[in-house]
Amino acid sequence: MNWLHNNGIEDSNIINYGDSIICSTNIINVEKLLDVTFIPIDLTNKPIYITNNNYKIPDDLTNIIEFIEGVSKGYPYYK
Question: For 12-70, how does the pLDDT look when each residue is reduced to its tens digit (9 = 90+)?
């Protein structure tokens, strides 16, 4: 949880289910948190974003975090 807190995600935006965590934040925080860059794709009237690179998890968390859903290279993120 410190990793999330240290990157601007407040407790009110984190739900811990024990085996998974759901959090919400803005794109700027996600880019910083996961070392990705989102690119807007204008296909509809609703903003869609994709990343041009795969996300990165800090080395000390790779044994805890198996994957991050919704953020991967070329996978659309709906704002």
Answer: 999 999 999 999 988 888 899 999 988 888 777 777 888 888 889 999 999 999 888 87
Distances (CA, A) of 25 to 10, 17, 33, 59: 9, 18, 10, 22
Greatest alpha-carbon pair distance for the chain in Å reads: 40
pTM as predicted: 0.75
Report how far residue 12's alpha carbon sits from residue 54's, in angstroms, rounded to the nearest whole number. Answer: 27
Whether residue 21 contacts residue 41, with contact meaning beta carbons closer than 8 Å, is answered with no
Position 60, amino acid = D
